[in-house]
């Protein structure tokens, strides 16, 4: 479950507050304390989260309960009976607190939910009584016989808890979608969409629930009403999140979502923010990492106008973020269908993308360069691409990308840098079948850089994929310019089988004592 990224000490303080609340509730038998109206209620979870959405507080409590249930199972395996009992008492109180907190802000809760609440509370009480009996006996045989019953009870609690949380989340998703559908107020609709977006950030399971409850259908209705134009960016951002799951994609296809997105992208009266968020939805639904894009048959029907609009958005982008979203969508589309590369070539996309790379205002991160070089790599399979690359000074750009390094050391950025190095080498290998490209690459000293990447694991951040791509590019250039290599480089990196050169390079920093 997704949680807000915070400092570890702050997280410990938050969890400590919850545990303290829990122990207080144990002593007071879950009875509320009467306080003055102007004082903060120290026993309420919301006291430290006054700015947070109530549902997020519920999700945090649910995450703690889930974690505690796992820990109880671990302690039970080790026969830590005293610890099992104290944790069981804590679970009991967390469950009661969660239910009380939820009932304070919810409305129209179903009879089924109340039944599960009662079942869960009763089973937790039974569990607490059970473990209390365990700590009062030292007979190993009795404890062994009780262990299976405790395990069974623990499993039942986990099942009831999971079913209750599922009902709660479904109920809240239904309430938000009902607000969006029935409200004529832009303010109420905006608030409901904002809450819905917050839910989508809690993980794929919540996105699945929202999609199953008709979230995609409801949001596309908003995107088809001019009176809600000001809400289009937020609505499209929420749609992009929901479409990370298969249920969301199926719903998008059913409501002709692709056609709606194409209309938005080609309508010049929409704001750049709206176009950018529509591009983000396109990037999501065409992601090569998804395995359920095959049914997007309507995408092919609208692909040419979508690609045209995205190229225009790249060309006119006012910020790096807009360019990133538009170029990411284009990059994914080039994986999605090879015809997209031909369309891009006709639209002079190569020239536009290469020009953007020299504008630090637009392409200022490894993530943006990753999208650009992905498009170049996929377009480089076309024979006509070579002349476009040379005219746009693309070989120089690919050479620069071979030096891509992370400035922050952030894991995601390092991975993006590796992808940039790998794809730039792949592009060079593909383009170097053209003698003119190979000659330009040799003049720009690409061969020494490729050798350095092959021989120095630190230069490629120990990436095997970068190594394979560099070996392939080096072998292609060596055919065109054999004089550019020293004999040792030729003997080790070019002459052997690729797998042998790969093994040689990966073992270069090993030492045997």
Automatic annotation (TrEMBL):
Gene Ontology molecular function terms on file: cytoskeletal anchor activity
Matches recorded under InterPro entries: ARM-like, ARM-type_fold, Armadillo, Insc_C, INSC_LBD, INSC_LBD_sf, Inscuteable
Domain Protein inscuteable homologue C-terminal: 61-513
Single GO cellular component term: apical cortex
GO biological process: apical protein localization; asymmetric cell division; establishment of mitotic spindle orientation; regulation of asymmetric cell division
Start and end residues of each Protein inscuteable homologue LGN-binding domain: 4-48
One family name in Pfam for this protein: Insc_C
PANTHER family per the UniProt record, alphabetical: INSCUTEABLE (PTHR21386), PROTEIN INSCUTEABLE HOMOLOG (PTHR21386:SF0)
Protein name as catalogued: INSC protein
Species lineage: Eukaryota, Metazoa, Chordata, Craniata, Vertebrata
Gene field: Insc
